[in-house]
Amino acid sequence: MDLGLKGSHAFVAGASSGLGLAVARELALEGCRVTVCSRDAARIGAAVERLRSLDSVAHADVQGVVCDVTDEDAIREAVARSVEAYGPMHVLVTNAGGPPTGQVDDFSGPDWEAAIRLNLLGTIHLVRHALPHLRAAAAGQDGFGRVIMISSISAKQPIATLYLSNVARAGVQGFAKSLSEELGPTGITVNTVLPGYTRTDRLRHLSDSLHERTGRSVEDIEAGWAAGSALKRIGTESEFAAAVAFLASRRASYITGTALPIDGGAIKSLL
Ligand SMILES: NC(=O)c1ccc[n+]([C@@H]2O[C@H](COP(=O)([O-])OP(=O)(O)OC[C@H]3O[C@@H](n4cnc5c(N)ncnc54)[C@H](OP(=O)(O)O)[C@@H]3O)[C@@H](O)[C@H]2O)c1
After folding, report:
1. Which amino acid residue places its CA nearest to atom 22 of ligand 1?
2. Which of 64, 148, 166, 248 has the fewest CB atoms within 10 Å, i.e. the most exposed one?
3. Whether residues 86 and 164 fall in one domain
4. For 42-67, how does the pLDDT look when each residue is reduced to its tens digit (9 = 90+)?
């Protein structure tokens, strides 16, 4: 299937490693011109080099910018640099790291505010600053626009030790659904993707922190996560990225307002 992405402009946030980098890789392989961002110049530089080393990817078609998505000014600047390099923006993928684990008494006021800034406001501000450029891409001849927000299965099925994530992701869902309604007439689709347990640095961080909290071995914790999915295994970054690339594509033109779990069947609800 030709996803029709060749020559399109994609911006992927939180993309020096993990799910964001895997998505950027998939989009670059589909022929997108991609801007990736993260907080760390060395890490985003290394990610850009990895993407540029892909056989079919031209050097000029990937750039990295340093941007902490909790800093609105940095977002404004990063989006401007992306548009300067690649023109109207067809695809925006919002992403960042995940918040710490804990129970309700473990978190201070500033902890809650930091999580909301990272996972909810970061998403909102990325969209706000990209929106004029997404509208421009959608309005062009043969144009299209896609917003994809990387969230978590905790948006549909809260996870016991992930209070901060559970709360922030619920807000992302409210924002995404509202936005999908407003942008529908422009042809810009808006969807969230909900990773289940997927092999990245973040997953290792989660299992280490549960190990410290409970004394269970990391292997036992991860086996429990795998057993909780219908497919009985942890997912891979490339499985996640393939689904996101489809949603980003021209072929996904009648899908909007959805929250797509990419979780091997970990969520147990009917819908
Ligand atoms: N992996 C899973 O199993 C899983 C499951 C459910 C939900 N999720 C969620 O999916 C998202 C991505 O997960 P992941 O596993 O890929 O995480 P990861 O391996 O920790 O990668 C996070 C990426 O985001 C960047 N980042 C972190 N904070 C940032 C900030 N403030 N501004 C800009 N970039 C930032 C990091 O780069 P720098 O350090 O270079 O800034 C890194 O590139 C997270 O929100 C996570 O909670 C993951």
Report:
1. 97
2. 166
3. yes
4. 999 999 999 999 999 999 999 999 99
